[in-house]
Specification:
six-stranded parallel β-sheet, Rossmann fold, Quinone Oxidoreductase, Chain A, domain 1
Length: 362
């Protein structure tokens, strides 16, 4: 194949499938043939026009695939060769600026003044292949790559990013370990990933809350390691969790997007000296009522979460490679490049899939 096909978002709910010649690879960079790219809630927000992202852009920031061309300097730096399979961290990092040295997002290197994240750069920034909704992805020298076993299915491999969130939220921020009682609010992909991460650490009991419409996801949560899957449509989430666990949880992870009540619920249900991880973004103006006195009385630790680290990505891939969980059930739906708009509309529907990915080979 001498050309790449890739999606460009030009406006709200408007994707275009474009084509261009594959770029020449230099000594310090590489080219990836994309096998799959997970779709997350941020992609949906950008697609709908609810984000401040600058358009046009090449979407897709959760790509996994195989190296098809690589320069000699890049080969030595990444310790990779043609044919190797890798997952790509969404953040580009120069490694030199103060932000990168501190391990934070938002590289301030001059080469990335127009964007530092795969999936959010424009098609006119050379060589244009900056997103995972494509047959090929340009691997800049500043890319962060993690090897993935070729034995893992494409479906399972596409979960590396969402599972890295679960590792970050449940383990790194939440401190879950053997015997930690956990409540996960919301059975979306990142809620399910938090269940996997917590169960991998030996935490338990684990309860997950959701609504009646989430029945399929709640049932899957039980397969992934939860002890209780609770429909709280007509119930107090705090009371339901404490009744099911027989105690107030040591750790509460709020993964519910857009819900302000879940923040109050998290503080109400958490046990004394427990930890609350707030990971479900509430959107512009999302000022949740926060019971400060109760948080103080319980001596709670409250942490905000936004993304995932390189370490959590490596741990997530190790969990995927273990084969311990039914991840093909989790990675439920695949869509072609030609049907990328359909994938986003599916995730916007009432009957949205558990998880969706773009597979260019379809």
């Amino acid at each position: 194949m001498d050309t790449a096909r890739f999606i460009v978002q030009t406006g709200p709910e408007k994707y275009e499938l474009r084509e261009r010649a594959l770029p020449e690879v230099g000594d310090d960079d590489a080219l990836l043939a994309v096998e799959a790219c997970g779709i997350c809630g941020t992609d949906v927000e950008v697609f709908e026009g609810r984000s401040a992202a600058r358009l046009p852009l090449v979407p897709g920031h959760e790509p996994v695939g195989r190296v098809v061309a690589i320069g000699e300097v890049a080969r030595a730096r990444w310790r990779l060769d043609e044919g190797d399979r890798v997952a790509v961290h969404s953040t580009l990092t120069c490694g030199r600026c103060r932000t990168c040295r501190a391990g934070l997002r938002g590289c301030t290197g001059p080469e990335f003044a127009d964007g530092t994240i795969y999936g959010f750069r424009g098609p006119d920034i050379g060589p244009g292949l900056w997103g995972g909704f494509a047959t090929h992805l340009y691997l800049a020298p500043e890319a962060i790559l993690v090897p993935v076993s070729g034995e893992v299915s494409v479906a399972a491999a596409s979960l590396f990013n969402v599972l890295a969130n679960g590792v970050d939220w449940a383990l790194d921020l939440g401190g879950a370990r053997y015997g930690t009682s956990v409540a996960v609010l919301g059975p979306g992909p990142r809620g399910l990933a938090s269940v996997i991460a917590a169960s991998a650490a030996g935490a338990g009991p684990i309860a997950v809350t959701g609504l009646a419409a989430d029945r399929e996801r709640l049932d899957l949560a039980l397969e992934l390691g939860a002890d209780h899957a609770l429909d709280v449509t007509d119930a107090s989430a705090a009371d339901a969790v404490q009744d099911a666990l027989g105690q107030a949880p040591d750790l509460v992870i709020d993964t519910t997007p857009g819900s302000l009540a879940s923040v109050t619920d998290a503080v109400r249900m958490a046990g004394r000296k427990g930890t609350v991880v707030l990971a479900g973004l509430k959107g512009p103006g999302g000022l949740a009522p926060f019971p400060v006195d109760l948080a103080c009385a319980k001596s709670l630790t409250v942490k905000g979460a936004v993304s995932r680290s390189l370490r959590s990505m490596e741990q997530a891939i190790a969990l995927i490679e273990s084969g311990r969980w039914p991840l093909e059930r989790f990675a439920s739906h695949a869509f072609s490049l030609e049907n990328a708009e359909g994938a986003l509309h599916a995730l916007m529907s009432d009957d949205k899939p558990i998880h969706a990915r773009i597979e260019p080979a379809l």
